[in-house]
Design goal:
Elements (H helix, E strand, L loop, with lengths): L2 H25 L16 H17 L4 H18 L1 H23 L22 H20 L4
Helix pairs in contact: 1-2, 1-5, 2-3, 2-5, 3-4
Pfam families: DUF212 (PF02681)
InterPro entries: DUF212
Protein name: Divergent PAP2 family protein
């Protein structure tokens, strides 16, 4: 298989696995489901695209069209991870809070104007800039390792 793809996939996996001990450090509780959740520290999106761009830069050079494509693709992914997706998560927090407040105001009889949600909206779907930064740094390191491990 393509070494660049393997490097990117491995970087995504490493970032997802790292979310477990980092969440344990923050919350003092083990939560293996953190490995499967979007958002959080570090950004696996950032790690994946940055490791691929790093691998390509080391393999083909920074003047190659391949590196240019990986860099532009990566920039779009990074922007989306901490822009659109993060804001969607922030809106989900507000909607969930609004839903809770309407229930609280309505008491036991919310009436037909409000139907309680079965499930709350997912609130952690994007990344804070620091999560993207550390995911990108992880990607640079793992992209370099992937390049070093390539078959010649």
């Amino acid at each position: 298989m393509n070494q660049g793809i393997l490097t990117a996939i491995a970087s995504i996996g490493v970032a997802q696995v790292l979310k477990v001990p980092l969440k344990k450090y923050r919350t003092k509780q083990w939560d293996l489901t953190a490995m499967l959740q979007p958002g959080g520290m570090p950004s696996s999106h950032s790690a994946g695209v940055t490791s691929l761009a790093t691998y390509i830069a080391l393999n083909k050079g920074m003047k190659s069209v391949d590196f240019a494509l990986a860099s532009i693709f990566g920039a779009i992914v990074l922007y989306d991870a901490m822009g659109v997706r993060r804001h969607a998560g922030e809106i989900a927090i507000e909607v969930n809070e609004l839903d809770r407040k309407v229930e609280e105001l309505a008491g036991e009889q919310p009436g037909v104007y409000h139907r309680r949600r079965e499930e709350a909206l997912k609130e952690v779907i994007g990344h804070q800039p620091i999560e993207v930064f550390w995911g990108s740094l992880l990607g640079i390191v793992l992209g370099s390792v992937g390049f070093g491990l390539r078959k010649k």
